[in-house]
Amino acid sequence: MRDEIDLLDFHRRRESPGDLPSSSNSSSPSSKPPGKSLVPWHTNTTSATNESTVQIFERYRDSYAIVTHVTHTFAPFDERFMALVDGAGFFVYGSPDAEARKIVDGFDAVYMVPFAGFIR
User: Fold this and answer.
1) Residue 84 domain-assigned?
2) Residue 118, domain member (yes or no)
3) Core-most of 41, 53, 83, 89, by most CB within 10 Å?
4) Does 86 map to a domain?
5) What is the 3-state secondary structure (H, E, C) of the chain?
6) pLDDT at site 115
7) Per the domain annotation, does 119 fall within a domain?
8) What CATH code is carried by the domain that includes residue 91?
């Protein structure tokens, strides 16, 4: 069993993509904290409705890295980020411990279990 936990979080965007923190900004929550190895942010615009979504794929070394990211690294940016998006949801790939699970459960988490595939 692997300890890594992947999160796919999704939001409806309120503001333009330029208002989202940039990965090149070292003070942004997308800076690489310990135990976090993957954090691409993606957005799309649906021309028919002019609504957009933001999806963030996150890979954590373990449950402790999730807790550390949310409570320390992301905490100073939480209010600013949530002002840019409506709602939140998470797909969780892996088995977080109770402390990490409590955090992601606050965002209507859906837990996905593996049934096939491979990781190299």
Assistant:
1) yes
2) no
3) 41
4) yes
5) CCCCEEEEEEEEECCCHHHCCCCCCCCCCCCCCCCEEECCEEEEEECCCCEEEEEEEEEECCHHHHHHHHHHHCHHHHHHHHHHEEEEEEEEECCCCHHHHHHHHCCCCEEECCCCCCCC
6) 82
7) no
8) 3.30.70.100
* Residues 109 and 5 sit within 8 Å (Cβ to Cβ): no
* Token pair listed for 104: 């992601």
116: phi > 0 → left, psi -120 to 50 → alpha, else beta; which?
beta
**59: nearest Cα among 84, 32, 82:** 32
Q: Which of 2-6, 28-32, 44-48 has the highest mean pLDDT?
A: 2-6
| Domain total of the chain | 1
**How far apart are alpha carbons 41 and 10 in whole angstroms?**
10
Lowest mean pLDDT among 22-26, 38-42, 54-58: 22-26
Residues 6+ apart with CB under 8 A from 18: none
pTM of the model: 0.72
pLDDT, one tens digit per residue, over 64-93 is: 999 999 899 888 888 888 888 887 788 999
Structural domain harbouring 58? 5-112
